[in-house]
Specification:
The chain is α+β, with helices and mostly antiparallel strands and 515 residues long. The chain has helices at residues 3-20, 36-46, 52-61, 76-81, 111-118, 136-147, 167-180, 217-223, 448-455, 474-482, 502-514, and strands at 22-30, 88-93, 97-103, 123-129, 152-158, 188-193, 236-238, 241-245, 248-254, 259-261, 265-269, 273-282, 285-287, 289-291, 295-300, 311-314, 320-331, 343-347, 350-363, 368-371, 380-393, 404-408, 415-424, 441-443, 466-469, 486-489.
C-alpha cells in the first residue's frame, strides 16, 4: 500500500468520525456587557477552533491585549458601539461533539434577535455579571429561553475575577436566579463561576475556585445528554408545494416531526380525507421510509384536493384544528399591538389573517402576571388568537414545529411578534373549532336524484347544521366545515370531499335530523 493511499484512508476515516459526532445547538443570552462574545471567543480560542487568518485579523483589530469578543462581533457597528446587534453563528468541534453556537444580542432593543437565535437551540448559556448582579434583561432572556422550549440551562456567573472569586457572591446570585426561573419548566439548570477574559473554568477547571466541585463549561457541554425525540413524535407534514404533471401528482415539503412509511394511513387537513401513502419520492430516488427533518414528495393512493398550507398527518394521532387558540407571545415591534387590526399569521407553510386579543402581560421586574389589553416592544403576554380559517397545531410544549407562529404586519411586511401556542380556546377534544364538531364534506355530483332534490328546493327540510353548495368554492367549504356544518357539494371537481353511496348520504341526513 502506498503512502499516498494511507494518507487518503486516514483523511476519509477522520471525515467519517467527524460526521458521526453528536451535534449540540446552543445559544448565549444575557444582558449587555455580561461577556457573551468574550466567552465564545474564549471557547473558540482555547479549543483551537480558530483559523490563523481570523486570529491575525483579531490581533490587528485589538487595542492592546487580544480582544476575543472580536471573533464574534463581526459588524462594524458592533465594534464601534461595543455591543452585539446581530446573531452571530459559530461552528466548532471537539473530540467528543460538534457545536453550532448562536451569540445573541444582550441589548433590550434587540430582544427579537435573541428570540430568533434561540428558536432552534437545545441548550442555553445565560451569563450574569458577578459585579453587577442579575439585570432585568437577564430575567427576560431566561423567560424567553423557557418559553421557546429549551429545557437545559447553563448559568455562567461571569467576571468572577472582579469580585475576588468569592463563593458567597456566587451562591447569592445562584439563589436569586433560581427564584426568578422557578416557574419555568427546565429539565436541568447548572451554575458555573467563570472569568471569560481569563479563561477560568471555561475550557479547564481552575484552582482559583477550589470551592466549586463541578466541571469546566466545555466538559459539561461535551457530556450533557440532549435527547431528541423528533422521530418519535406524531407525523406532521405541512404541504409546501404540489407537483402535477399528466401522470404524476405529489405533495412536497419537509417532515416537521415523526416518520412515514409507504402504506401508512394518513389524513389531510383541513378536509379530514384519509388515504394511504403510495410512494415517497426524493431527488436521489424512492424511499420506503422517511423521517424528520427530511424533505420529500409524497404520492397518495387516492386523488385528493390538497394545496400549499394543508397538512398531511398520521390518522391515529390528529392535531387540533381550530380558529381560536391561546398562546404566549413576544412582541417585537416598536409599534404597539393594535387589537382592532388584522395581522398576518404565518404557521408552518400557511398564512392567514388573524386578530389578537391580549389577556395579560408579564411584568419582567416582579415576574408577576398582570391584566392588560395591549403589548409594547419586548413585552411577553398571554393572548387569544382568532384566525380567518382553521389552522392545525399541537401545543408548543409537545411540538415546537407545529406549535409556533409569527405575526407579520401586512402593511410593512415586518415580523412584529413570535408566538407559542398553549391550547385551543375549547379543550373539549381534537378537531374542535371553537368547541364545535368539524363538519364532513360530501360530494353528491354523481347522484342525479339527490342533485335534483336539492336544486328543487328540498334543502329547506335539511337539518340546521347541513348546507348545500351549488357553486364550488374552496374557501367557503373550509369555513363552513370548520364551523361544524356538514357540506353537500353539487358541482365540485372529482376528488373533492367524500364520495358516499346515495343511501349513506340519505341515512346521514336522517341521523342529523334526529340529533
Amino acid at each position: 500500500m502506498s503512502a499516498a493511499a494511507s494518507v487518503d484512508i486516514t483523511a476519509e476515516e477522520l471525515l467519517r468520525s467527524e460526521q458521526q459526532k453528536d451535534l449540540l445547538r446552543l445559544v448565549t443570552a444575557g444582558s449587555v456587557d455580561d461577556g457573551k462574545s468574550t466567552l465564545i471567543g474564549r471557547l473558540l480560542y482555547d479549543s483551537h477552533s480558530i483559523y490563523e487568518d481570523q486570529l491575525h485579523a483579531v490581533k490587528r483589530a485589538s487595542r492592546g491585549n487580544l480582544e476575543l469578543a472580536l471573533l464574534t462581533d463581526g459588524l462594524r457597528a458592533e465594534r464601534e458601539q461595543g455591543i452585539t446587534i446581530d446573531v452571530a453563528y459559530r461552528y466548532f468541534s471537539t473530540a467528543k461533539r460538534k457545536f453550532i453556537l448562536a451569540d445573541t444580542p444582550g441589548h433590550e432593543q434587540y430582544t427579537r434577535n435573541m428570540a430568533t437565535g434561540a428558536s432552534n437551540a437545545d441548550l442555553a448559556v445565560l451569563l450574569v455579571d458577578a459585579s453587577r448582579g442579575i439585570q432585568p434583561q437577564s430575567k427576560r432572556h431566561a423567560h424567553i429561553i423557557g418559553l421557546l422550549g429549551i429545557r437545559h440551562l447553563a448559568v455562567l456567573v461571569n467576571k468572577m475575577d472582579l469580585v475576588g472569586y468569592a463563593e458567597d457572591i456566587f451562591l447569592a446570585l445562584q439563589q436569586e436566579l433560581l427564584v426568578a426561573i422557578e416557574q419555568l419548566d427546565f429539565e436541568t439548570v447548572e451554575f458555573f463561576p467563570v472569568s471569560s477574559s481569563d479563561g477560568i473554568n471555561v475550557v479547564r477547571r481552575s484552582p482559583l475556585t477550589p470551592w466549586f466541585r463541578g466541571p469546566a463549561l466545555l466538559e459539561y457541554l461535551e457530556n450533557i445528554d440532549i435527547t431528541r425525540s423528533e422521530h418519535n413524535k406524531p407525523f406532521r407534514f405541512p404541504v409546501q408545494r404540489v407537483q402535477r404533471t399528466d401522470d404524476f401528482r405529489g405533495y412536497s415539503g419537509q417532515i416537521a416531526t415523526g416518520k412515514i412509511t409507504v402504506g401508512d394511513s394518513i389524513t389531510v387537513l383541513p378536509s379530514l380525507r384519509s388515504t394511504r401513502v403510495k410512494s415517497i419520492v426524493t431527488f436521489e430516488g424512492e424511499l420506503q421510509r422517511a423521517v424528520s427533518p427530511q424533505s420529500v414528495t409524497l404520492t397518495l393512493e387516492d386523488e385528493l384536493d390538497i394545496s400549499r398550507g394543508d397538512a398531511i398527518v398520521e390518522t391515529e394521532n390528529l392535531p387540533f384544528t381550530t380558529h381560536n387558540f391561546r398562546a404566549r407571545m413576544i412582541w417585537f415591534s416598536e409599534e404597539p399591538l393594535d387589537p382592532k387590526r388584522r395581522y398576518t399569521l404565518k404557521h408552518t407553510t400557511q398564512t392567514v389573517p388573524a386578530e389578537i386579543a391580549v389577556e395579560s402581560r408579564l411584568d419582567i421586574s416582579t415576574l408577576a402576571t398582570e391584566r392588560s389589553t395591549g403589548l409594547r416592544i419586548n413585552d411577553i403576554g398571554d393572548v387569544v388568537v382568532e384566525t380567518s380559517r382553521p389552522i392545525f397545531f399541537d401545543p408548543y410544549s409537545q411540538n415546537r414545529k407545529t406549535g409556533s407562529f409569527i405575526l407579520i404586519d401586512p402593511a410593512t411586511h415586518n415580523t412584529v411578534a413570535a408566538g407559542m401556542i398553549t391550547s385551543p380556546v375549547s379543550d373539549s377534544g381534537r378537531q374542535q373549532t371553537s368547541g364545535r364538531r368539524h363538519g364532513r364534506v360530501i360530494n353528491v355530483t354523481d347522484h342525479k336524484p339527490l342533485e335534483e332534490m336539492f336544486q328543487n328546493g328540498s334543502r329547506e327540510t335539511l337539518p340546521e347544521h347541513v348546507v348545500v353548495l351549488s357553486n364550488w368554492n374552496r374557501k367557503a367549504v373550509e369555513l363552513l366545515s370548520g364551523a361544524g356544518f356538514d357540506v353537500l357539494l353539487l358541482d365540485a371537481p372529482s376528488g373533492i370531499g367524500e364520495n358516499l353511496p346515495e343511501g349513506e348520504i340519505l341515512a346521514l341526513l336522517q341521523n342529523r335530523i334526529h340529533e
